Amino acid sequence: MKIIASYSIKGGVGKTTAAANLAWLAAADGRRVLLWDLDPQGGATWLFKVKAKVKGGGEALVAGKLDMADAIRSSDFDNLDVLPSDFSYRNLDLLLDAEKKPTRTLGQLLDGLSKKYDIVILDCAPSVSLVSESIVRAADLVLAPVMPSPLSMRTLDQLREFIGDTKGKSPKLLAFLSMVDRRRRLHKDLVDELPGSRPDVAKTFIPAASAVEQMGVHRAPIVQWQPRSAAAIAYQDLWREARKRLK
Ligand SMILES: Nc1ncnc2c1ncn2[C@@H]1O[C@H](COP(=O)(O)OP(=O)(O)OP(=O)(O)O)[C@@H](O)[C@H]1O
Ligand SMILES: [Mg+2]
Predict the structure, then answer these.
(1) Average pLDDT for residues 198-224, to the nearest whole number?
(2) What residues does each domain of the chain span?
(3) What architecture (CATH level 2) is domain 2-246?
(4) pLDDT digits over 32-80, tens only?
(5) For the CA of 206, the nearest atom of ligand 1
(6) Helix, strand or coil, per DSSP, at residue 145
(7) Residue ranges lining ligand 1, Cβ < 6 Å
């Protein structure tokens, strides 16, 4: 079982969109996939039309009072299950604070699922927190959308540092440029330069496309309902790159 975390310190950069599309593509590839929505906003849960309420919520899960298997829901798609988020996840930081009370790490919680799933994708809330540390420690690969901006190099360096500082095993990092508009000079320059100059940046970038925003209307990943669109093709390429790094 391999664990991919869709993570960034920043909000609104395309984490949930990437997590949803990659989860669907991995499932279509024949992998048994679990998408764990760790964001109290519950975007991924909503997108896959999964009922959010799980008895006891995140608290019961982390405290070991609720079995992971009982909290998992199936989606409308073969091979693709969702572990829904709910608003109790806003307290996840406190729950994971091992100094306050004995608690399970996300990694330990996921260990029990290793026979059931080939790929687990974690959709993370934007933050640098105990939850993010726990996520990074559990992950094999951190998939990080980066907006094309003059700050993107700095964002990447901060991510690298955060991953490097986290105790325990270090996951691989695969950053990718998100919401790229090649008509803009700066975007075009970054797309031309960044992937070649840094091994942790994917060759694939995700174009800005209004169709991607329509995912909320269709309530399904764009790779499912518009597979020949430029954005869907980009997600397919990104999945191929991510898959290679998992080996
Ligand atoms: N390639 C794209 N082109 C156009 N819009 C996009 C693209 N990717 C994502 N969006 C839109 O940008 C917004 C933020 O995307 P998303 O929710 O995936 O980001 P996020 O990083 O998960 O945000 P948060 O930090 O709030 O969890 C959404 O409205 C989404 O539809
Ligand atoms: Mg999100």
Answers:
(1) 96
(2) 2-246
(3) 3-Layer(aba) Sandwich (3.40)
(4) 999 999 998 899 999 999 987 777 777 788 777 888 888 999 999 999 9
(5) 1
(6) strand
(7) 11-17, 39, 43, 126, 179, 206, 208-209, 212-213, 231
